[in-house]
Amino acid sequence: MFAHEAYDFTAWLEENIGVLSDVLGFDLTPVERERSAGDFSADLLAEDEHGHRVTIENQLEQTDHKHLGQVLTYLAVLDTEVAIWITADARPEHVSAVSWLNENAGGADFYLVKVEGVQVDGSRPAPLFTRIVGPSLETRSAEQTKKEWDKRDRVRYRFFEKLLECTSERTNRFSNVSPKGRRGVSASGGYGFSFGYSVSQRESRAYLYMHFGETQAVNDAAFKVFREHREEIESHVDHELDWVQDENRRRLIRHVVDVGYENEDRWDEAHEELAKSMAQLEAAVKVHLEDAQEAADRYARQAELSQSG
To answer: What is the pLDDT of residues 84-97, one digit of tens each?
Structure first.
């Protein structure tokens, strides 16, 4: 299916990480491929939706002790909090080992994922992921309470703390939202919608996104309603809007500012622009939210009837 693990599969996974996110049940964002870890290099470094560092080790063959050792090494050297080991064939001994680590190691979540190629009607084989083992909800909750924020988390917390203060002067949408040391903060926009802010090292964003479930076509049905009124919506917003599908396959309307958490000397400028854009975007789409919800529900019902029929 892939001629070379690093050049082909890892590169493909970096571009299509949303497929893995869907299987694991949480969003992943790629950060760096072939990240150096002493004399070794991790296949892929990522972040989850809470800003936790994730290392992904790919092994397109049967699991072995060498790769298990590499997974543990990357956790220690790169100070990551989640480990995902992708393999074509998991030995029972290693399934037991990963389960044991989740129950006894503490400080990290471990996932073992199987990948195989599936082919439909003569098409090119495509990767199919299956979660073999991962942490329980109880284990993850307990570990998260023990984690300490590192410098980056504290910086992001301060970024959102000041941004939410600035936002409160323009809209009460985020009045019940607390700052976090994660990649983003969000507030409900009603069923299927969220307004939010996110920040990375070099840019920050204000956005509305659609999340009606795993079926992308339902999100598209809601997105289409806004697209039909794009000119009207953009006329009420002073800043340029992007209409996109993000790396996790969500549909978003967003405004991007070229100031991230590393550019603290420009935070005031970014906060003013983001808060203004958010207030204008909220007001511009508000009259279309109900229609978009109905469009998504209508599509979902039609899909269910089609399947049952």
So the answer is: 999 999 999 999 99
The pTM score is 0.53
198: amino acid identity, one letter:
S
Residue 238 buriedness (CB in 10 A; 0-12 / 13-18 / 19+) = exposed
- CB of 237 closer than 8 Å to CB of 277: yes
Given the structure tokens 């990948």, which residue do they identify? 115
The half-sphere exposure of 227 on its side-chain side, counting CA atoms within 13 A, is: 14
pLDDT tens-digit series, residues 124-149: 566 888 999 888 755 555 455 445 45
Spell out the alpha helix ranges (H) of the chain. Answer: 11-15, 17-24, 65-77, 92-104, 137-146, 151-167, 216-228, 230-235, 267-285, 289-308
Tokens of 134: 């991962």
Cβ–Cβ < 8 Å for 1, 44: no
For residues 87 and 152, give the distance between their C-alpha atoms in angstroms, rounded to a whole number. 31
Distance of alpha carbon 227 from alpha carbon 231, whole angstroms: 8
DSSP string, 211-243: --SS-HHHHHHHHHHHHHTHHHHHHT-SS--EE
What is the rounded CA–CA span in Å between residue 35 and residue 45? 7
Which among 42, 53, 44 has a CA at the least distance from the CA of 12? 44
* Measured distance CA(112)–CA(134) in Å, rounded: 7
Count of beta carbons in the 10 Å neighbourhood of residue 100: 11
